[in-house]
Amino acid sequence: MRQGITLILLLGLVAGAATAGGGTPTLPHCFSGGVTIGGSPAPAGTVITATIGGTEYGSIQTTEAGKYGNPDQSVADRLLVKATENQSGETITFYVDGVAAKETAIFAVGGGTVLDLSVPGSGGSGNTGGTDNTGNSGGSGGTGGTGGTGNTGNTVTARESAAPTAAPEVQTGQVSLATSAAGTVLETATVRTADEICAVTIPEGTTARDGNGNPLDTVTVTREDPVSAPAAPPGTTIAIVLNCDPAGATFDPPAVLTYTLSGEEWAKIGVALKVIWYNPVSEAWQDVPATVDPVTRTITAEVSHFSIYALAWTIPGTTAVAEAQQTSTSPGGEPPWPFIGIGMVILAGAMIGGFVYLKKKN
Questions:
Q1: What is the DSSP letter of 229?
Q2: Can you list the positions of beta strands (E) in 77-183?
């Protein structure tokens, strides 16, 4: 009975949204689970927001410390991510009171997921405060701390006493990483180019090592002239080249590479955009899976290692022609002389045979 009521409510919600927007009904992806701030249960009143590509698609406010949503209650009691069907497979980023959670999820139409969320910072209930002069209870302290003495007995919640979490610092050109002895990044770091078009973010918790397997302590990104980059694949035009150092550095999970274009740049090159990287071993460019968001004019890709990366686009109709031209010559670019020689021998044999046949007939 409970499942039937939940399904009816869910279908009604979707049908109402479709009627208002005039589009095809799309079932939201429902989320619930635990939520912690700095390892402690998030207090009631914490706001959790779900975004895709920088756009908000749902939010919920907790009513119980350390929990958001309830999979055993109605759909309305969960965090509903109301994206569209063509966004299936895209990454959902969660924010807890404006701070990005370590956990992400993949949007699925009609999905139902129990996902525990966690963010760094101070939060949760601390130890009980002291007693004031009138015998009333003092406020709760911050995480692991002791509450102050209350003069009037008013309650001071842990949420009010917790210091706000600072946003990750963004550096230009080069950034230093705070890493453990095992190479684990202790604080999210972002480095961008001077023109603010390209940026690389290494999230907290990522294992970052240099080419020798040692903990990575510095990351450098530099925009290069496309003319100095290796030749582009046939039918491809390179627009922006980014040199990420140190070459050979690895990231697990991957770091995030973002290209942000101006309106003018998007109008000029915003067609069939893709991200490629240069493999020095095979001496060839290779495609990197990327997400293109025309609303924010951003192209985002996950990179598990450092090398030369480029934002490029494919010229429509040129790839097939270039491949056909390549197959008409030998790998070295020279005419296929062996095949031409064989053809000439066959032609000469046919001519001689015809001559002998005609002579005998006459």
A1: S
A2: 79-81, 91-96, 99-106, 112-114, 117-119, 170-172, 174-176
pLDDT > 50? residue 188: yes
The residue whose two tokens read 């005609």 is 358
Helix (H, G, I), strand (E, B) or coil at 97: coil
Q: Do the strands 236-245 and 47-52 form a parallel or antiparallel pair, or are they unpaired?
A: unpaired
For residue 55, give both structure tokens. 């756009």
- What tokens appear for 267 in the block? 């109008």
User: H helices of the chain, where?
Assistant: 2-21, 158-161, 263-269, 319-327, 337-361
pLDDT higher than 90, residue 43: yes
Residue 69 predicted with pLDDT over 60: yes
User: Helix (H) and strand (E) counts for the chain?
Assistant: 5, 23
What amino acid is encoded at 56 in this protein? Answer: E
Which 8-state DSSP code applies to residue 355? H
Report CA-CA distances (Å) from 222 to 196, 207, 227, 354: 11, 22, 15, 69
Contacts of 236 (CB under 8 A, 6+ apart): 276, 285, 312, 313, 314, 315, 319
**pTM more than 0.85:** no
**Tens digit of each residue's pLDDT (9 = 90 or more) over 5-40:** 555 555 555 445 444 444 444 788 988 999 999 889
Q: Which domain does 156 fall in, by range?
A: 126-166
* Residue 131, amino acid: T
Which residues, listed in sequence order, are joined to residue 290 by a DSSP beta bridge? Answer: 301
Question: In the chain, what are the helix, strand and coil shares in percent, each to the nearest 5?
Answer: 20, 35, 45
Backbone angles phi, psi at 206, to 5 degrees: -70, 140
- Number of structural domains found in the chain: 3
Whether 115 shows a pLDDT value over 70: the answer reads yes
102 and 222 share a domain?
no
Q: Is 97 in the same domain as 179?
A: no
- Asked if residue 148 and residue 43 are part of one domain, the reply reads no
The DSSP result for 248-289, as a single string, is T-EEEEEEEEEEE--HHHHHHH-SSEEEEEEETTTTEEEEE-
